[in-house]
Automatic annotation (TrEMBL):
It holds the Pfam family Lectin_C. The chain crosses the membrane at residues 12-34. It comes from the Eukaryota. Keywords: Membrane, Transmembrane, Transmembrane helix. Residues 36-147, 152-262, 261-376 form the C-type lectin domain. It comes from Oreochromis niloticus (Nile tilapia). This is Macrophage mannose receptor 1-like. PROSITE patterns: C_TYPE_LECTIN_2 (PS50041). The keyword Membrane applies.
Amino acid sequence: MKEKSFSCDRATMQWSLFLLLLMGQCVFITCQLYKYHFIKEQMSWDAARAYCRENYTDLAKVFDLTDMRRLQDSAQNQTEAWIGLYNITGGDNRTWHWSLPGEEYTENKTCWGAGEPNDKPYPENCVMKSEKCVDVSCTQKYPFICYNETMKGNKTFHLNETSVTWTQAQNYCRQHHTDLASGLDQIYSEEFKKLQNSTALWIGLFRDSWRWSDGSNFSFRYWDMDSFNDGLDNRTCATTLLERSGRWSSDGCDQRKPFFCYDDKLILIRENKTWEEALNYCRQKHHNLVSISNPEEQRWVQERAKNASTPFVWLGLRYSCTLDFWFWVNDKLVCYERWASGGRTEDCSMSAAMTTGGQHEWVSQRENETFNFICIKH
């Protein structure tokens, strides 16, 4: 599939729609739902957070490697800068995460072996799966299974029989595929079971006590293990080492450094409206109903959706009976999809909504239903 990029003006959006009809090509439009700002002035972590909250949204949070590249591109010739990650020290504050960005951890006792996770005889923050899940030290070595997903949702697994540490396994999967196998749907799938064949393997489950400043549940971590100190010696705030591929380290929060802020262009409207009413509201008071073109944007939108008061939130995705395909209201092409199984109904007067709980997948809804919705700000 060929990829082309265009700016966000209306003419090029209409041109992209024409390309879809003419050639079936996938056109990625370079609008952003959020923007990073590099601040050269050196401040402590707390002062930097206060500055970002006053002038933008908050200290920068990072969804994946794409965001890391954006940070690096906006701060040339700099060595180190604060990001919005900090450590709530203490073992009881650790939280389980899946390594794959966007995959949320929910407590499920059926995954764990008897008495697990037991955290003995020392902190055990990574998970190995044989018949059941077991928490072990991240420095132990096991083979592993990587997960790969294309923009169109094609999913494959890849077994690597080399025994490495959990961090090495994660790095390999992110470099050559998408990530370590993550989520119960993946590790209980028939494809995974065939590759595992009762072998003890790393999976993408880990825990730590690091939190994002704005309260987001982003699980992405990018530590430089040579310099990382996991909250010890009061090094409880995170920095990005821009000269070391953006890898992260930790430092005392009172140290003065430049920093990254982010500016969020999404706003959740907690009013119940039909799809047409939601579209008109967003266009009159903001910019438009939200469109989603990649996994990063999906993750940022679902963070907003969690706070809705309805079981779904409207998206700017509508089905055309005349043309017999789905299209975004800003004329973006549907290059990325997140439909729930059986959730897509192609019928007149149908638009897409995101579930506000669970996996935040898309489902078709009649346009006369009333839900909360998410707008893009100007």
